[in-house]
């Protein structure tokens, strides 16, 4: 039986496991999913916890081990140490190496907390549940709140290019926090600031969405500092190149991202920590290894929807090879909804980032309802929804 190993059980890994179960009969593959946690934290919902409601972080844990085993797949809880593509083995922390015939890597990127002097997870964040809880609790005592977007380290010739790691959560937290403070009649006492290395807000979304975001920020009196270059961070201030210091009682960071240490130690990266993939998500050197989600240099702008689309592309390519079909290459586009607070959302559907020039933006209640529906459907079906992108 053909041995398939999936590394990671978040957006990309879960969608990969879904498509393997959907397309292949049980007798054809032996599928093993590896992750260091048996549950997935649904990260898109953590912005609500960070925006003054820390208890909400505990409501977004999804039982991925249970989901995979219900489908007849093996689930191994362990830490992945190294991949040996020559021996076709995955080395784990606490057990014998795991052999594979085909490997899907969906372990995500590593936050580069230490790439900015003085920066660390203790400064505040939103990318993990414990960070979102801490950030949400600190907001209750703050008079100046800064949402800081870290830079994205890419290879020099990578396209598309983004300056920031992911700016959407910063805008969501700022809008939700603004709405929460107004409900408490405290907005006039709190200064909200967003700092980003990008030249515009929503750099991955396109000009229409960027203009809308800029307008909404101005209407809510949320300050925006663009093209920021970070010099160093202190406990109550972010220092930018040019000797500008931004004071902060509370910081919430979307950290810098600089690729994957797993890929580096396994010598599977492009020299900059990213998975070098062809249009079918196949490794440029190893045809039996696929890269899905944030780990891939083609996954920009690091959104869960793109990871799910990559999983579909990768598994359908794998299926086509085994069943003499014709695979379709990855056709990326951005589909995202920014929480605006007050029951509003900003829906973006755009391939502008990828040079296609199509962009659609829709602010309103219906966009927020669509985001709520997706979030709760994802939780209800443990990531394996009836309709998958």
Describe the structure.
Residues 3-124 form the FAD/NAD(P)-binding domain. InterPro entries: FAD/NAD-bd_sf, FAD/NAD-binding_dom, SQRD. It holds the Pfam family Pyr_redox_2. The chain is α/β, with parallel strands linked by helices and 389 residues long. The chain has helices at 11-23, 46-50, 64-70, 129-138, 168-183, 207-219, 261-266, 304-323, 365-380; strands spanning 2-7, 29-35, 39-41, 61-63, 74-77, 80-84, 89-92, 98-99, 102-105, 144-149, 191-195, 223-225, 230-234, 237-240, 244-247, 250-254, 289-291, 334-341, 344-350, 359-364. It folds into two domains: 2-36 and 78-110 and 259-323, FAD/NAD(P)-binding domain (3-Layer(bba) Sandwich), CATH 3.50.50.60; 115-257, FAD/NAD(P)-binding domain. Helix content is 27%, strand content 24%. Strand 11 (191-195), helix 6 and strand 12 form a beta-alpha-beta unit. The radius of gyration is 21 Å and the shape is globular.
């Amino acid at each position: 039986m053909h041995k398939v190993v999936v590394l990671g059980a978040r957006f990309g890994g879960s969608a990969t496991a879904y498509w393997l179960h959907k397309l292949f009969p049980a007798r054809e593959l032996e599928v093993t999913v590896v992750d260091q946690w048996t549950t997935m934290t649904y990260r898109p919902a953590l912005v609500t916890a960070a925006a003054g409601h820390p208890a909400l972080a505990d409501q977004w844990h999804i039982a991925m081990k249970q989901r995979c085993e219900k489908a007849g797949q093996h689930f191994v809880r362990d830490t992945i140490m190294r991949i040996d593509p020559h021996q076709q083995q995955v080395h784990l922390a606490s057990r014998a190496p795991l052999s594979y015939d085909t490997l899907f890597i969906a372990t995500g990127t590593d936050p580069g907390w230490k790439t900015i002097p003085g920066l660390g997870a203790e400064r505040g964040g939103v990318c993990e549940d414990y960070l979102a809880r801490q950030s949400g609790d600190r907001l209750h005592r703050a008079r100046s709140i800064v949402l800081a977007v870290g830079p994205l380290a890419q290879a020099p010739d990578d396209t598309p290019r983004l300056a920031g790691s992911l700016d959407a959560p910063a805008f969501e937290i700022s809008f939700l926090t603004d709405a929460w403070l107004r409900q408490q009649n405290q907005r006039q006492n709190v200064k909200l600031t967003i700092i980003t290395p990008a030249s515009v807000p929503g750099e991955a979304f396109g000009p229409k969405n960027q203009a809308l975001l800029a307008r909404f920020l101005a209407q809510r009196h949320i300050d925006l500092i663009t093209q920021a270059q970070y010099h160093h961070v202190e406990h109550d201030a972010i220092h930018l190149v040019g000797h500008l210091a931004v004071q902060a009682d509370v910081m919430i960071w979307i950290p810098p991202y600089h690729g994957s240490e797993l890929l580096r130690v396994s010598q599977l990266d492009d020299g900059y920590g990213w998975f070098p993939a062809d249009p079918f998500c196949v490794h440029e050197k190893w045809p039996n290894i696929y890269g899905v989600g944030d780990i891939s240099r083609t996954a920009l702008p690091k959104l869960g929807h793109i990871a799910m689309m990559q999983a579909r592309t990768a598994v359908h390519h794998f299926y086509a090879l085994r069943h003499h079909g014709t695979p379709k290459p990855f056709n990326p586009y951005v589909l995202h909804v920014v929480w605006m607070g007050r029951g509003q959302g900003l829906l973006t559907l755009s391939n502008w980032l990828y040079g296609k020039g199509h962009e659609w933006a829709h602010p309103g209640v219906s966009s927020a309802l669509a985001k709520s529906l997706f979030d709760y459907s994802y939780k209800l079906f443990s990531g394996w929804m009836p309709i998958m992108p």
